[in-house]
Specification:
This protein has 658 residues and is an alpha+beta fold. It contains 12 helices and 42 strands. Helix 5 crosses helix 7 and helix 9 runs parallel beside helix 10.
Length: 658
């Protein structure tokens, strides 16, 4: 049956093969840890220390006991020999989670090795409940109810085990082991494939915004957002040389088109794992940086965490255990221009060493912004249990990699006195936001379907406390800039990009008929052109006007990025964020708010020029003709290729930007 006891501010349930501890953690939050081992592990992973706790009440006896912490409360019942313990969570006295009996204990544990088990925490399903979050992956899903997902990172997927429920609570699975989440009709379940213990937080605010703030109290807030980052970013696969890049920047300037950032992609380096410019193609980085600075353009440089024995840094890093190792076999975990392994940023000595090289080879020229590609990292085959990190075997720690990869650059830049820190990264984990991680959704195909899915990716990441997000405008792979279909897609994606946290044009375009090899024989040559004047004469003025609009929205964007910094509120917001009492808003997956005042309804299907839009209660101004429309209804809107559908709350001054 088990027994319950109270020790200071902890509620402890113990029975054969199970030890469970409930305790407050900050405001309106209860933490639950449970293990088959003899003691609870005091490991917070990426969670910050809790604020002082004074209002928690714990009472009961050895059979039934309660813990109350603000809006949140939980009850544990010792049960009987057949059913074990029953754990129930409440928000404002209303049941939200209850452990489900499935023929075993409160938590089902299967032994893996040593003190590690496959851990499953299972709750009863709630009828009519919606779930949002779990990071990003290329799926046509925003409401996660009825779905399952693997908790593992890979290119296009950032697994953040964080949920917001339409019942008004948040759930954070605090476990960096790969696993899975099932949000099906018969249960809610989280699984860690190999872990010492279950560890999760349940927290609740009065609104989605309050609940997000509680989550960010646990994992951190995004830093101050650089104003320049709110403008237009130019990028392609890839600029092969210093002169190639400067020619593009000069042409934007000659045409009078505002450009705030330009990005140097991969293989500008001498060797993977050397983190420095190849002098043959980048002969004077200092002069390049000076010219860009004079044009008011920030430079962003790609960094990969790959390294191989040809690198001048390999031997030193390998001997000092600064690289990801394998439990059995050779170093190689990624075959890309030779067998590569990855640096291990979980090791603080790795972070110091790599930053010293980045400082010498990039920062001293004035380069302060970095693109952290391969941040999952991209391991083939995906066998996390075969990898050895500084913090342990990958079966227990693999999900932490992008967190520490971002931390490497954040800490390095902070040590140099930098305050405006932003790193474009391909993966994230809870807490990555506090290191200035700007996440994008990876190397996705250039299709309308992927545009549609990107809308849901951005919203999902916002609900996981990652307010800085973007996608490659136009998608990354197989875009044919001579085709009518792609030229339509690039306009619709540009429209979406205007109302994303960051607006960045990127992609590996098919080489068109006029493509010229500027540097024959170069490793990883560039793909087709990717500037706004290469997508057809009809599109050029449309795209130029959208960049001008983004520039006019800078003050508005920065206003809500400041709110994200202080409260965790994403600028790309699901409809229910602003209207949590409107049941319709919980079912809307393809329209959203950009900040509090702009309602954007993107068109994401080829050949489509109209769509239905739901307007919540209030009065809304249609941005195109400034007409006022009453809310509380569905309407149908038209939008030719040069047009988009957006509304502004009546009374907001942002209407002057349109």
């Amino acid at each position: 049956m088990g027994t319950i006891r109270i020790e200071e501010k902890r509620l402890i349930f113990e029975r054969k093969d199970e030890l469970t501890v409930l305790e407050p953690y900050g405001a309106h939050c209860i933490r639950c840890r449970s293990t088959k081992n003899a003691s609870i592990l005091d490991e917070n992973w990426t969670v910050l220390p809790a604020a002082s706790q004074d209002e928690c009440i714990i009472e009961g006896d050895e059979k039934t006991a309660w813990i109350r912490n603000g809006r949140m409360s939980a009850c544990i019942q010792a049960g009987n020999p057949w059913y074990g313990g029953i754990l129930t969570f409440y928000r404002d006295g209303k049941q939200i989670l209850k452990t489900k009996f499935e023929g075993d204990y409160t938590n089902r544990n299967v032994h893996i090795e040593g003190d590690h088990y496959q851990i499953r925490v299972i709750f009863e399903a709630n009828e009519g409940e919606h779930f949002y979050g779990m990071g990003q992956e290329q799926e046509d899903i925003f409401d996660r109810k009825g779905s399952t997902c693997q908790i593992i990172h890979y290119n296009t997927k950032s697994a953040l085990p964080v949920l917001y429920s339409s019942l008004g609570y948040g759930f954070f699975w605090n476990n960096p082991a790969p696993g899975r989440c099932e949000l099906t009709k018969n249960h809610t379940m989280f699984v860690a494939d190999s872990a010492y213990q279950a560890d999760y937080f349940v927290y609740a605010g009065d609104t989605p915004a309050e609940t997000m703030k509680l989550y960010c109290d646990l994992t951190g807030y995004a830093p101050k957002f650089p104003r320049w980052a709110a403008g237009f970013w130019q990028c392609r696969l890839r600029y092969e040389s210093q002169e190639d890049l400067l020619e593009v920047a000069r042409e934007y300037r000659r045409r009078g088109i505002p450009i705030d950032a330009i990005v140097i992609d991969f293989f500008h380096w001498t060797e993977q794992g050397e983190w420095k410019f190849d002098p043959k193609y980048w002969p004077d980085p200092a002069a390049m940086c000076r010219e860009l600075e004079e044009m008011g353009i920030q430079l962003v440089v790609s960094i990969w965490p790959t390294i191989n024995p040809a690198s001048e840094n390999y031997q030193e890093m390998s001997e000092a255990n600064m690289l990801v190792r394998t439990e059995n076999g050779q170093y190689g975990v990624f075959d890309f221009y030779g067998q590569q392994t990855f640096i291990d940023p979980m090791n603080p000595e790795t972070r110091k060493f790599v930053w010293s090289r980045v400082k010498e080879n990039y920062y001293r020229y004035g380069i302060k912004n970095f693109w952290l590609d391969e941040a999952e990292p991209e391991v083939h085959p995906q066998q996390p249990w075969h990898l050895k990190y500084y913090l342990g075997n990958g079966a227990q720690t693999a999900q932490l990699y992008p967190f520490y990869y971002s931390k490497l650059f954040y800490d390095g830049l902070k040590s140099e006195g930098e305050e405006e820190i932003i790193s474009l990264t391909r993966a994230a984990y809870p807490g990555s936001q506090r290191f200035g991680a700007l996440v994008w959704n990876g190397d996705i195909p250039s299709t309308f379907q992927n545009l549609k899915m990107s809308i849901k990716s951005g919203l999902s990441m916002g609900m996981c406390g990652i307010p800085w997000w973007n996608s490659d405008i136009g998608g990354f792979m197989n875009g044919d800039i001579e085709s009518d279909s792609f030229r339509e897609l690039i306009v619709r994606w540009f429209q979406f990009g205007v109302f994303c946290p960051v607006m960045r044009l990127h992609g590996s375009r098919n080489r068109p008929s006029w493509h010229k090899d500027r540097h024959p024989g170069i490793i990883e040559p560039s793909a087709g052109d990717n500037v706004i004047w290469c997508f057809g004469e009809r599109n050029y003025p449309i795209l130029k006007d959208l960049i001008y609009l983004r520039e006019r929205l800078k003050d508005y964007t920065c206003r809500y990025m400041e709110e994200a910094h202080k409260t965790g509120a994403p600028i790309m917001r699901p409809m229910f964020w602003e209207f949590p009492e409107d049941a319709v808003c919980y079912e809307l997956e393809d329209q959203y708010f950009y900040g509090a005042d702009i309602l954007f309804a993107p068109i994401y299907e080829e050949g489509v020029t109209e769509r239905r839009v739901y307007l919540p209660e209030g009065t809304w101004i249609f941005t195109r003709d400034k007409t006022r429309v009453n809310g509380g209804q569905w309407i149908t809107c038209q939008a030719g290729l040069s047009e988009f559908i957006a509304f502004v709350r009546d009374g907001s001054d942002v209407i002057d930007c349109f």
